[in-house]
Amino acid sequence: MSLTLVSFNICPYVLRVIAALNHLKIPYEIKYIDLQNKPDWFVKASPLEKVPILFVDETVLFKSLVILDYINTLSVQSLLPNDNLQRALNRARAEFSGEIIGTFWNVFSAKTEDSFKNNLADLKWYFEKLEGWLQQSKFIFSNELTLADFAYAPIFTLLSALKPQLKFNLFEGFPRLQEYNENILSLPGVQQSKVENYDQLIQERFAKGAPFFLTL
């Protein structure tokens, strides 16, 4: 069986999958495409014409959390609880991360002060929820690393890339979230999930649109 992951170089959702594949030591190949010039084979293979998709031999999986669920089954070291209800709760907390990624993108691409402030307030609302969960355990679900934690990896890799340009501390008032951020970024699988010039590419991506946060 062969695994081929398809994405573009700064896709936040593919980082989840790469980090988990690396952590579980599952062999895979990766192909990066240009979303502005999608190859025909990708358009045919991806039902939503979005990345990431995972070729499992000739079968195509899409949606990053679905891909995470699948690759977890390939490892003897499962990252999910045994209890069905707890597994569902783990997936629910993983899904929550998608809301944060979308809001994060809105914060750092906002063109006006009002838009920036409104989206930042939304982001901090999500952070309050995370802080509450993290008051109860080291990781997002328990004291052990689980599949849900990899769903949050893109948030912290994005923040780390933008840190040189930030004039404010997003984690102010969220000490457990700050610690969680450091724990996730320290994982070898997460460190190895980025392309070599990832930070530069992220900074250039946001600078192009002249977002409000760069004027602070």
Automatic annotation (TrEMBL):
A Gene Ontology cellular-component term: cytoplasm
Domain named GST N-terminal: residues: 1-79
Domain GST C-terminal, residue spans: 83-212
Domain of life where this protein originates: Eukaryota
PROSITE patterns reported in the protein's UniProt record: GST_CTER (PS50405), GST_NTER (PS50404)
InterPro entries associated with the record: Glutathione-S-Trfase_C-like (IPR010987), Glutathione_S-Trfase (IPR040079), Glutathione_S-Trfase_N (IPR004045), GST_C (IPR004046), GST_Omega/HSP26 (IPR050983)
One Pfam family hit: GST_C
PANTHER family reported for this sequence: GLUTATHIONE S-TRANSFERASE OMEGA, PTHR43968
Protein name (record): Glutathione S-transferase
Natural source organism: Paramecium sonneborni
